[in-house]
Here is the input.
Amino acid sequence: MALVPLSVSAGQLTAQFENDLWGSGSDQHYTHGSRFSWSSENQLGWVQKSARRVGGLLPWLPALDEQTLNQFEAVRFNAAIGQNIYTPEDISNPLLISDDRPYAGWLYIGSGAVLVRGAVNHRVIDSFEVNLGIVGPSSRAKQVQREFHKLIDSPDPRGWDNQLRDEPGLIVMADRQWVFP
Here is the structure.
């Protein structure tokens, strides 16, 4: 395992907040999300230099040939931490509601990359991200939602004793976009 030193002072920090308070005002299903992320500046030069070194050691890897490396316009890395909160429609009921979404929280960290390639008449943007986290009481969703409801003087969600149990989770995402002029 190798550590790649990237300057934290470079790049872009993003804070994202989603809450049903700003929409329907109803605590049903997806009720809240927070995400803090950092995206590096363009690391294309570093990636090309490293890939050429690896390509010199493993010349049979076709993805590391010079023609492929020269197609890229930008490579950015990202890291994130976030939390999502889910509740049933009726948050005043302290009992398990078996025919509705259960109380649940998802607390995660993530890392990924965005690669931009130029083509003859368009660009291709590939994004990859891996999130590792926990569902259940260790996500601290119960505490976050209850404190937020106190802050905004909303009803206390009473069914958190029925939330999903602790389980680890892994999400792997890939996305491709074609951008035409």
Notes: The domain at 12-179 is CATH 2.40.128.140 (Lipocalin). The CA atoms of residues 136 and 164 lie 5 Å apart. The longest strand covers residues 72-87. The chain has one domain: 12-179.
